[in-house]
Amino acid sequence: MSFNAVHTLTGCLLNIEAGTDLRGWGRPPLLLLVQDRPVPAAPHGTRRQMRAVHLPLNDAHMGRYRAGLADLLPDLAAALEVNQPVARPALAACVDISLIADLLADPTPGLRLLAWAVCYEDVLVEPDDLHEIRRIDAVDADRRGYQITRLRGDAQPVVCIDDQLDHDDTATIRSGLARLVETTCRPG
Fold first, then answer.
1. How many whole angstroms separate alpha carbon 18 and alpha carbon 138?
2. Is residue 118 within 8 Å of residue 69, measured between CB atoms?
3. Rounded distance, CA 166 to CA 45, Å?
4. Of 6, 76, 79, 151, which one has the fewest beta carbons inside 10 Å?
5. CA dist 10 to 85, 126, 139, 182, Å?
6. In what helix (H) or strand (E) does residue 3 lie, and over which residues does it extend?
7. Taking a C-beta distance cutoff of 8 angstroms, is the pair 49, 39 a contact?
8. Nearest C-alpha neighbor of 121 from the set 48, 76, 59, 177
9. Which residues lie across from 159 on neighbouring strands?
């Protein structure tokens, strides 16, 4: 991805986090599919439009996955590997697999996957204290990792972009996102 695409994707993720912060804490996790396509009026596809599709996750059914998002994301990737998603009752109770399959099969010329992301709340454990945090983890088509973290009560989030996601200490959620990217990228 170009520098401009990375910058635009980071801005998009920051806007999503800011909107989530305005709605307050205690929200269910949110899965995001980020795609772009050539701007129809631009000559020769020189400009592109980005869209981030919000795919709400049913928090009440997330308990069906022992490790939560860390188990759900690889299960979703496995369901999307085949042309016809296999019946997975636990997954279907958490997210609309048909909607995702339709978005991925969109025939729009030049449409490409940019990233998968997930926005969720977590707990940061420090030696002397616990902190509520909100995170957006993302993996782009070049397997670059993004993490936006906001401690509850902080005015600004912290952004971290990891150009080399293939090392051993990659978080399990980002590993699941990487598997989704690998499974759903269109050739070419």
1. 16
2. yes
3. 31
4. 151
5. 30, 27, 11, 20
6. helix 3-23
7. yes
8. 59
9. 148
What predicted TM-score, i.e. pTM, was given to this entire model?
Answer: 0.85
Place of tokens 């085949």: 82
In 3-state terms the chain splits into helix, strand, coil percentages (rounded to 5) of 35, 30, 30
**Closest by CA position to 71, among listed 179, 152, 182:** 179
Each residue's pLDDT tens digit in the chain (188 positions)?
788 889 899 999 999 999 988 888 888 889 999 998 888 776 665 688 888 999 988 887 877 787 788 888 988 888 888 655 556 778 888 888 888 888 988 888 888 899 999 999 888 787 788 889 999 999 999 999 999 999 898 889 999 998 876 654 556 888 899 999 998 886 65
- Per the document, the length of the chain is 188
Cα dihedral 104/105/109/112 (nearest 10): 20
Burial of residue 170 (CB within 10 Å: 0-12, 13-18, 19+) is middle
